[in-house]
Amino acid sequence: MGLENIVTIILLYYLHKNAKAANVSQEWRKYIWFGFLLAIFLLLFGSTGVIPSLLTSALSIALIGGVAYLVLNYDEFQNTKPLFIAVIPLIAVSVVGDLIEAIDKSFYKKVDMIFDVASFFAFIWAIVMYFTYRKQRRIREAERLVAIEREREFEITQKIKAQLEKDVEERTVALTRQKEELENTLAELRATQSQLIHAEKMASLGELTAGIAHEIQNPLNFVNNFAEVSSELVEEMQQELEKGDLEEVKYIFEDLKVNLEKINHHGKRADGIVKGMLQHSRNSQSQKELTDINALADEFLRLSYHGLRAKDKTFNANFLTDLDPSLPKIEIVPQDIGRVFLNLINNAFYACNEKSKLLRNSGKNVDYKPEVTVSTQLGDNELEINISDNGSGIPESIREKIFQPFFTTKPTGQGTGLGLSLSYDIVKAHGGALEVESENEKGTIFKIRLPISKKSP
Amino acid sequence: MKILIVDDEKDVETLFRQKFRKEIRKGDISLEFAFSGDEALQILSSEDPPKFVYVFSDINMPGMTGLELLDKIKAKFPEINVSMISAYGDKENYEKAIQSGAKEFFTKPIDFDSLKEEINKLTNL
């Protein structure tokens, strides 16, 4: 009988083969290898009779028992278990046969047939199981490969994910930095804008100064002159009193009364101009107050005219007013609307002046009278202020752009390009509208419409 | 002697009439006033030949300036004396006025003593 040993060899061969995959320790592999050699030795010499058959049988049974113990009890050898199950009947038949043979040889001879048949069925079982095992093994192998592939894919995905996370983080940092930069730029732009608005205010104040100087000089001259002439009159009155010419004294007395009124009037006039100038230069938020639009328009028309006149000796233009006396006072910020008037009137005078310069330089002897008109009228719950000139008009190509900030037709350094843009904003802030009508070679009209607020009487 | 004073500030009339009260009472001079260049030309043209001997004109006026008025008076009535009175006593204005035939150039605030002296020069002739 050598069936046990053949089975042992096969089992140990597979154990050895599977050992690599199942991560079996070096020591176990040594034992497996030793058992393998022992099984071959027993197979070769068992039937020769060199070793007593009883010993051979005992060793064979011990060896297969040891292998069976290993396979059933150690996790490392799990993968050989199905194969072991396949050969269990073979082992059982062989071991039982060997035992019976060793105990009673004659009885064994009698039941020899049964063992042969049992061996045959056990063998067929073993073959069937073997093929089943091989098939399963292949499936498992395939599954293993798939699992390895999955593992690899997972690792690649993980790597990509990590890279993505890194990229996202870098991008987030970059975006945050950009956002901060943009915010800083925006803050700087805001600061620059308010500086520009202030600069424009100051620039228009500069334009005003000459006009203001002239406007103040005139009333001051009158104050001085009337004061002087009054003291002369007082002396004369004294002389007339001594002479007894009471008629003349009365006459002088009337003059003195008039003069005191004149001094008062012109003093107030100068005072008003200084106050207006201070208001104009103030940078703080301004309060709305009930304002006489006619008076404001008239004041700024004069300031503009005298300012330009003082700056440019060759400048001259006629200015007219057509003010509707029925206008109610309205709630506005006077210095803001004053700036709008100043900007628009300055532009109007500028346009006229440019046209007369052009005509003069072309040598044509055209009878051109530059003229700026400020008119007001009462509309439907609104006031309309028209500032018109008879200049060259605004070319259609730039009419769209004139309210854009920094757009100017004046030579560099002469205009900030903010006048109309700010005027537009100021009128808008008052709930009104600023529109322009222009005709080539005929002139331009700027129309300001301001609502009459319900609060105003 | 008739004198025309041209200025867009109306109170100039009150001032001048008081300053020259004595002269006017004595009948040495008579004053007339115009408040724009156009009005001045109208007044001067209303009589032929005009009785005015002297015109004092402001330079800064809306519409026709004093310098334009000076040119026109000198072209039409070369015998009338014209002097300028301006708040802007700069060289440019001064030279232009003198070149155009202005007799004198006074700056504001007006020094009435020198103005009287100037007028007396003519009345004493």
Explain what this protein looks like in three dimensions.
The complex is a heterodimer of chains A (457) and B (125). Chain A is an alpha+beta fold and 457 residues long. Chain A folds into two domains: 3-157, no CATH class; 285-457, Heat Shock Protein 90 (2-Layer Sandwich). Helix content of chain A is 70%, strand content 9%. In chain A, the strands form two sheets. A five-stranded mixed β-sheet of chain A has the order 2-4-5-7-6. In chain A, a hairpin with a 3-residue loop joins strand 4 and strand 5. The radius of gyration of chain A is 59 Å and the shape is rod-shaped. The termini of chain A are far apart. The model of chain A has no long low-confidence stretch (mean pLDDT 85). Chain B has 125 residues and is an alpha/beta fold. Chain B has one domain (2-123): Response regulator (Rossmann fold, 3-Layer(aba) Sandwich), CATH 3.40.50. Chain B contains six helices and five strands. Chain B has helices at residues 11-19, 21-26, 37-45, 66-76, 91-99, 112-123; strands at 2-6, 30-34, 52-58, 81-86, 105-107. In chain B, strands 2-1-3-4-5 form a five-stranded parallel β-sheet, with helices on both faces. In chain B, strand 3, helix 4 and strand 4 form a beta-alpha-beta unit. At the A-B interface, helix 5, helix 6 and helix 7 of A face helix 1 of B.
